[in-house]
DNA sequence: TATTTTAATATGTCGTACATTTTTATTTAA
DNA sequence: TTAAATAAAAATGTACGACATATTAAAATA
């Protein structure tokens, strides 16, 4: 057997085991949000460990939003908001290149999937807003050395599209993926002006299609537009 | 002002404040994965709090995968995998209805966005596999009382589609969204057989389109197929 | 009976201590 | 002088005990 197949011995710390036990308990107890949990001392006694260790395990569930504890009263099962945990770790500097690329791809898929909603739910005001963004973008593009401003308009344009969708989940996703996207963007394209604007399909093209074209046109153009950012998905 | 606008006074616990301070420190210190962190006692001294409190705050970052600690050696910045945190809280029983619906929608958007990839990357074997799933599904549908089996085939079919995409992020998302999806499904449609199979567009239709149609056809049919599950997105 | 006081409770925070293992420093041997 | 063996220091993980504080329940009082 190849040595690369050898996995390091899992040296689970005691808190890890406690966490596992608690997870099993939570799964099996069929608890619902709002239900009370046993007290810390009870849990500690039941598992035969110190309150310190129990508290650290519980802290993990609290961090994930699975449980909530109210001072001096007790702990109870909570309803976690999955995106919150997601958002907290969306720091571009921390993510490794694989994860960055994953998030990049994810954004592209969402952006394409969003086309349907955008087309379906667009209003005159939405178009007007996007038009103003594109106007400003094109005006800025004529003057040199305005990368930061260009990036801002790029964000504004795409954020505007997500807002049209009216889908909160998408909007939140976009909000957290955007910084990651921009970070990767700068990393791989040192000259943003050239990269942002040299699109096969520009924001102006997209906007015109949104106004006068069909949803299929729009999606197709969006795909071409995004291909310029990143060619892994085509 | 409406009383509903009143938010409860935020009574931040000390650990919350410590967490905030640590977050600020991490943000400002420009640390990269692999960089070492100050020792617990140093942090405790710097903030003028006990080691217990510091440890609990650090535990939160550890839980999120932002830091890693190696016993007897020290702590360092890590590269979090955002999906891990996501997966951990994807327990349908815990999520509230709003979140459930968000996840539902998210899956639908991903499924539509995935169509492009599926069409582009499908192979003969993929088609063969999907065909076998659909065959079994249809066979089962003729006999009564097989909801669980039908659901399994439904999952197999859609999972198969994601696998074709070759996009790991999508696959992982699908894997964690599926239980949530199925849970909501059962919750809202007590008779799965009727709901699963009474599609405007069946799995068989999708498969045929995947074999002989165009990507636009496929996407369009997928949208109709999914509409039957959930009509919020159309 | 209604109100006030008291007591019990549970989490949050603190301090200390020690186990264990890695790292560093020191001592010893060749 | 260098290398090996030994000792010391260091850092996280775990445990225990204590107290603060605010809530809830119980008891006492008007």
Give an account of the 3D structure.
The structure is a homodimer of 234-residue chains. Chain A is mainly alpha-helical and 234 residues long. Chain A has two domains: 3-80, Arc Repressor Mutant, subunit A (Orthogonal Bundle); 85-227, GntR ligand-binding domain-like (Four Helix Bundle (Hemerythrin (Met), subunit A)), CATH 1.20.120.530. Chain A has eleven helices and two strands; from the N terminus they run αααββαααααααα. The first copy, chain A, has a two-stranded antiparallel sheet with strand order 1-2. In chain A, a hairpin with a 3-residue loop joins strand 1 (67-70) and strand 2. Residues 3-7 of chain A have low confidence and may be disordered. Chains A and B meet through helix 3, helix 4, helix 5 and helix 8 of A and helix 3, helix 4, helix 5 and helix 8 of B. The structure holds a DNA duplex (30 and 30 nucleotides).
Kindly list the characteristics that best describe this protein.
homodimer, mainly alpha, Arc Repressor Mutant, subunit A, Four Helix Bundle (Hemerythrin (Met), subunit A), two-stranded antiparallel sheet, 2 strands, DNA-binding
Secondary structure layout plus pairing:
Two copies of one chain form a homodimer.
Chain A lengths: L13 H16 L10 H8 L3 H14 L2 E4 L3 E4 L4 H7 L8 H25 L2 H18 L5 H19 L2 H21 L3 H6 L5 H10 L2 H13 L7
Helix pairs in contact in A: 1-3, 2-3, 5-7, 5-8, 5-11, 6-7, 6-10, 7-8, 10-11
The structure holds a DNA duplex (30 and 30 nucleotides).
Number of strands of chain A: 2
The number of helical elements of chain A comes to: 11
What helical percentage do the residues of chain A reach?
55-70%
**What assembly state would you assign to the polypeptide chains in this entry?**
homodimer
Average pLDDT level of chain A:
85
CATH level-four homologous superfamily name of the largest domain in chain A: GntR ligand-binding domain-like
Q: Please state the structural category of chain A.
A: mainly alpha
Rg of chain A, nearest Å: 24 Å
Shape of chain A: elongated
Regions with little confidence, pLDDT below 50 for 5+ residues of chain A: 3-7
Beta-strand content estimate of chain A: under 5%
| Biggest interface found | A-B, 54 and 54 residues
- Highest CATH level, the class of the largest domain in chain A: Mainly Alpha
Task: Just name the CATH architecture of the largest domain in chain A.
Answer: Up-down Bundle
Specify the biggest β-sheet of chain A: 2 strands, antiparallel
Order of helices and strands of chain A: HHHEEHHHHHHHH
The CATH topology of the largest domain in chain A turns out to be Four Helix Bundle (Hemerythrin (Met), subunit A)
